[in-house]
């Protein structure tokens, strides 16, 4: 383990000097760990893939800032990954539901144009109903059912007990169901 730490410190030093081979070696040695950090926060693999690219761009730019006397190289890189993923979550929280694009994860094999139009109409209705939910409850529903966050993750995010989160989700789904029947 100590040897691995020294290897990573050496690789970061070389990356700070703009050594591309060292950067490739650093990526191979750490990408699985950092991907785990990012996907654990963002849940959706497509978002995690994009975030991981940005994490390594930041590591490339900031490798010279790493100070081995202040911590391990993997902890430093994991902090960059964690902060990048949390920034994405905060941005998603700030975006209103109505800002979601018309295509909002609609299956690509929608069939005919008529099927796609019907799907978009249902999607617009869902977005309108989501917009009627209280802010925290809307966010909880989106994080749970769109991003796949667990009740425990939501509990931590909102600072509420898990049973409260379950109640929020249950009542919000009932409200959505009623709204969509209109």
From TrEMBL:
InterPro entries in the cross-refs: RNA_pol_sigma-70-like (IPR039425), RNA_pol_sigma-70_dom (IPR014284), RNA_pol_sigma70_r2 (IPR007627), RNA_pol_sigma70_r4_t2 (IPR013249), RNA_pol_sigma_r2 (IPR013325), RNA_pol_sigma_r3/r4-like (IPR013324), WH-like_DNA-bd_sf (IPR036388)
GO BP annotations listed: DNA-templated transcription initiation
Molecular-function annotations in GO: DNA binding; sigma factor activity
Domain RNA polymerase sigma-70 region residues, every copy: 26-93
Domain RNA polymerase sigma factor 70 region 4 type: 124-176
Pfam families membership: Sigma70_r2, Sigma70_r4_2
Keyword terms of this UniProt record: Sigma factor, Transcription, Transcription regulation
Keyword Metal-binding attached: no
Record-linked NCBIfam families: sigma70-ECF (TIGR02937)
Family of the protein in this entry: Belongs to the sigma-70 factor family. ECF subfamily.
Protein name (Swiss-Prot/TrEMBL): Sigma-70 family RNA polymerase sigma factor
